[in-house]
Amino acid sequence: EDFLNLIFKAMMKDSLNSSHPVSSAVQSSEQIEEMFDAFSYIKGASLLLMLKHYLTKEVFQAGIEVYLHNHNYGSTKSDDLWDSMNEITNRTLDVKKMMKTWILQKGFPLVTVVRKGKNISVQQEKFFYHVEPENWTSDASYLWHIPLTYITSSCNFTHCTNAYLLDQKSGM
After folding, report:
1. Per-residue model confidence as pLDDT tens digits over 20-57
2. How far, in Å, CA of 160 to CA of 51, rounded?
3. Which domains does the chain carry?
4. How far apart are CA 82 and CA 94, in angstroms?
5. Distance (Å, whole) CA 108 – CA 65
6. What is the C-alpha separation between 61 and 43, in angstroms, rounded?
């Protein structure tokens, strides 16, 4: 419950135009200190939980084990973790490409789901909680690769989960 409260606080900060990406290039030690704030850790932990749920606990755990084995006693960069996940998924999913949309952009998406009969359509756009006109920037270039999971009447959450990766502005 405490972690959930922290996630909502981080989302509130991330919905502001003054937010920053989880990962970015830095030029000075001061920028490094700014980058490693509580927000970055909370959002990063949330993103890892999202990935774990999408890949399944077993696949995620195997990816972590490969990562730790391949990089024990060494330094790494974020791409190394995503490469380890790609290795475990046999490259059936480009985890690096998906996760870069989350860590290199500030903010998060608002997903709108519309049902028309048996058809479902989904659309994404950048979510803003509050934008001051002088600080507003266009959100047209923002695109996330959003792992969506869903259930149907023939497949409930305890028996199976369907997955869909929304990697465009809209999809069906």
Report:
1. 888 877 677 776 666 677 888 899 999 999 999 999 99
2. 17
3. 3-104 (1.10.390.10), 108-171 (2.60.40.1910)
4. 8
5. 29
6. 20
The two structure tokens encoding residue 152: 């149907």
At 127-149, the pLDDT tens digits run: 987 666 555 555 668 999 999 98
Amino acid, single-letter form, for residue 75:
S
CA dist 20 to 16, 67, 168, Å?
9, 27, 22
Residue 102: count other Cβ atoms within 10 Å of its Cβ. Answer: 22
Whether residue 99 has pLDDT greater than 60? yes
Question: What element of type H or E holds 55?
Answer: helix 38-55
